[in-house]
Amino acid sequence: MITAIEKIQAIEDNLMQTLGQVFLQSDLWRNKIIKGFFIIFTRIGDGLIYPVFIVLSFSFSNLTLNYVLSFLLAFTVERILYFTIKNTMKRIRPFERLKINEIPVLPPDRYSFPSGHTSAAFLFAALVSFYFPAFTFIVFIYAILVGLSRIILNLHYPTDVLIGSQLGISIAIISVEIIDIIL
Predict the structure, then answer these.
(1) Strand partners, 111
(2) Is residue 99 classed exposed, middle or buried when 0-12, 13-18 and 19+ CB atoms within 10 A define those classes?
(3) Greatest Cα pair distance in the chain
(4) Residue 111: phi, psi to the nearest 5?
(5) What tens-digit pLDDT sequence spans the chain (183 residues)?
(6) Do the beta carbons of residue 153 and residue 102 sit within 8 Å?
(7) Could you give the CA distance from residue 96 to residue 103 in angstroms, rounded to a whole number?
């Protein structure tokens, strides 16, 4: 008897195989442009932009220390939790499982579940939208594109990205609440 997890894995394997053929192994110029677009978003999602944004936005706004502490707490908890889950679950990345040799970006670590890039991007988007509501649309589009880039580039399964997004948003909300209670 096939379990629900095995069915989901089979569906995701088929999807990732198709995406690999379309975007990673295709010589069509359109697919190369799309692949390049998503490589840019995956690189932006590497995380260098987050501390720069936090420092600049704190320096040029009238935000309180709660702002910086919320970011510090959220990213610290998120990195620890994501790393713990990833190294407990040990889900093999799609390109490895499906024997896809052409990957345009090397992953930062070995395992797939959950997507750390997506988790951090959605955590960032949730925190920015909390403190700068006018930027909500832009930062969530950014987070969605980071998550999609991880799928398109065959680095993560859709469920890795889905759970990563929820992990990031949840930790952001809880961190803001904790800092507000403490301070």
Answers:
(1) 92
(2) exposed
(3) 59
(4) -105, 170
(5) 678 888 888 888 888 888 777 766 667 777 778 878 888 889 988 888 888 887 787 777 776 778 888 889 999 999 999 999 999 999 888 888 888 767 777 788 888 899 999 999 999 999 999 988 998 999 999 999 999 999 888 899 999 999 999 999 999 999 999 998 887
(6) no
(7) 10
The predicted model scores a pTM of: 0.89
Looking at domain 4-182, which CATH architecture does it have? Up-down Bundle (1.20)
Domain residues of the chain, as ranges? 4-182
In terms of Cα–Cα distance, which of 172, 111, 112 is closest to 140? Answer: 172
Instruction: Dig out the tokens for 12 from the structure.
Output: 């995701």
CA atoms within 13 A on the CB side of 87: 7
Give the amino acid at 76: T
How far is C-alpha 84 from the chain's CA centre?
Answer: 16
**Per-residue DSSP letter, 134:** G
